[in-house]
Amino acid sequence: MALAYAPSLETTPVRIAPRYDHFIGGKWQPSSDGGTFPTINPATGATLSHVANGTPEDVARAVAAARRAYGGIWKSMRPADRAKYVYRIARAITERSRELAVLESMDGGKPIKESRDFDIVQAAAHFFYYAGWADKLRYAVAGTAAVEPLGVVGAIVPWNFPLLMAAWKIAPAIAAGNTIVLKPAETTPLTALLLAEICAEAGLPPGVVNIVTGDGVAGAALVEHPDVDKIAFTGSTEVGKIIQRTLAGRRTPRTLELGGKAANIVFADAPLDQAIEGVVNGIYFNQGHVCCAGSRLLVQEPIHDEVVERLTARIETLRLGDPLDKNTDIGAINSAAQHAKITELVRSGVAEGAVLHQQSCALPDRGWFFPASFFTGVSPSHRIAREEIFGPVLSIMTFRTADEAIEKANNTPYGLSAGVWTDKGAKSMYVAQRLQAGVVWCSTFNQFDPSSPFGGYRESGFGREGGVAGLRPYLR
Amino acid sequence: MTPLLAPSPTVDAVMLEARAAGFGKRSIKNEAKGAAIDLAIRCIDLTTLEGRDSPGRVRSLCAKAAFPAPGAPRVAAVCVYPNLVAVAKDALRGTGVKVASVATAFPSGLSSLDVKLRDTEAALASGADEIDMVIDRGAFLAGDEMRVFDEIAAVKALCGPIHLKAILETGELGSYDATRRASDLALEAGADVIKTSTGKLGTSATPATALVMAEALRDFQRRTGQRRGLKVAGGVRTTKSAIAYLVLLDEILGDAWLSPDLFRIGASALLDDLLLQREKLVTGRYGSLDYIARD
């Protein structure tokens, strides 16, 4: 008999208002021109709500509110008291975790399993972690006893881990004594707005955390605003370059966490079944919408066919469908635009001569979905081997020696993450030391902890988030 | 002459345990849960292996094995010590429930091969339908793989068509690599089923251990075309954990393994929880163990 998996939907109710305003100075304020844009559930295509479309005036109001809060109360508050607010936010995220998870899955398309067990858990963990730093800042920077916050932080976050990326910026920024204006991604504003509600309920002084929703117009206004003391951006390398150009000639400190095209290197002596798990996690986690995704699989030649055979069997067990079904492994692609981008790059892979393999399941008849896919016969010159696809699409290539694997892995403009799979510890270290990537995972992948720094080399950006290294960019 | 075995694949604990934990996260509800509960009941080896086991105790266990509760399916087998096989055989006549006997100096396996074979012979002579043997962990840990292999092969030769389950006692093997190696040895030596544990240790079946063994079974089938079975024993007490093992089988080995021919759960208390959950699905009310017959 076959084991049936009846649909098992997460039923925690969430309240979604028909429209949302910006959260500025502790008050909900509409856009200066009254403009809104719809936010859509990518699994159904249905409009969830209408959200204020941020203008440069809105951004200016938010920056002014953040400035007032900074000078008026937050900078001079006793650090231990500041910590209490941050702890309070952390606890509230934990208490409302299921609600946040459902909202994250509805607005962004990610499986409830991931929003529930990863995104929200990690977001709360970041607030807890940085709350502990608030009254210990002098120990964050070696050799100095006098540290100060920077002032007003402008933060722009992407749509792949909406609440978690907001937490990565807000938690260290406010724990260190800064105030912040955050612009969530256009397609996934809802959990950041719920976080604003949580901040208000936690009694956080007005203006310490401000949320301005909108598109690139609001983002550009925030970067260009002269009264912003620090820019923290996570997103595409393309936008990262625009930010760099905008800020050229200004001393505004910045951290940029950008794209990636990570190599996951599997040696012939690796524990193969576990390596396959790491490969699957590396590329299909969050539909591949992960900047540190292991999107290039470098396999040692003798095990290429076996890896392909096992991976083919493994992706058949991935359950694609309704993000709110607790059994779903692969949810919806975040937006129509992203779906089109993935489709275009996959077409280019086929056109350039690589062989496409996909899971055989039927796709839901509405919403944007893309099956778990991988390419064999990929040459390093193919676009699918060079460009970030940001979807559930893996490119498999081979290597013969460790040095060749290192060379191929480093042959990319990016350098965010990498994976090494071998049963030999010494080889693992040899390879890891030579990979130009901010994070190298050995015999595992996608492991995160608030105490562990994360960030890129080269066109994957600079500055670190997480750990004490993630605190320093918010201090002077 | 025993053939030299090819090396076994290595196993890494971190991703193994991550994958194993994933099976327990599958949410099997409603009709699917009902079907899974009945399948789990059909796969149980209802077990009593205590020094105080008596004919009366075994007869009452057999009655429950054959008729667990109104409407519920029968379990696969009753598992007892060799001395009680005849009692169980008699009590289960005509029910289709099999009698499995532990043998080979269970649970330690630390006797001469001669004693182990005679122990097995006695169980077979009493009418055992299946033999649960223990491997010699001492020899395995001392590196004497050939001895482990030869003993399994000798017991299997004695069993003939009777199903042989090889108990690896993974809690004593010390690593997942060793569990994988012992699984490969037992399968190559002719065991029809590989079984996690005796149930006599604190550490018994875990999802990660079962995953290593299922991977060995999958690779064995790829290599030889033969389907061999898996038995998890010890520590499986709840419906939720039993269903997690069914999910593991389904996702690693496929539908063909979802049958008492290829999967068993050695348990005693588990049956009560399965019956309780079954009752809840049928009536919509949470019952109480007071309404479930104790064996």
Q: Which descriptors apply to this entry?
A:
heterodimer, A: alpha/beta, Aldehyde Dehydrogenase, Chain A, domain 1, Aldehyde Dehydrogenase, Chain A, domain 2, seven-stranded mixed sheet, six-stranded mixed sheet, 14 helices, globular, B: 295 residues, alpha/beta, TIM Barrel, eight-stranded parallel beta barrel, 11 helices, 47% helix
Description:
By secondary structure, chain A is α/β, with parallel strands linked by helices. Chain A has two domains: 19-258 and 458-474, 3-Layer(aba) Sandwich (Aldehyde Dehydrogenase, Chain A, domain 1), CATH 3.40.605.10; 263-442, Aldehyde Dehydrogenase, Chain A, domain 2 (3-Layer(aba) Sandwich). In chain A, 38% of the residues lie in helices and 16% in strands. Chain A has 14 helices and 18 strands. In chain A, helix 14 links the parallel strand 16 (417-421) and strand 17 (439-442). Chain A is globular and about 65 Å long. Chain A starts with 18 loop residues before the first strand and ends in a 14-residue tail after the last strand. Chain B has 295 residues and is α/β, with parallel strands linked by helices. Chain B has a single domain, classed as Alpha-Beta Barrel (TIM Barrel), CATH 3.20.20.70. Chain B has an eight-stranded parallel barrel, surrounded by eight helices. In chain B, helix 8 (176-189) runs parallel beside helix 9 (207-224). Chain B starts with 12 loop residues before the first helix and ends in a 12-residue tail after the last helix. At the A-B interface, helix 9 of A face helix 1, helix 2 and helix 10 of B.
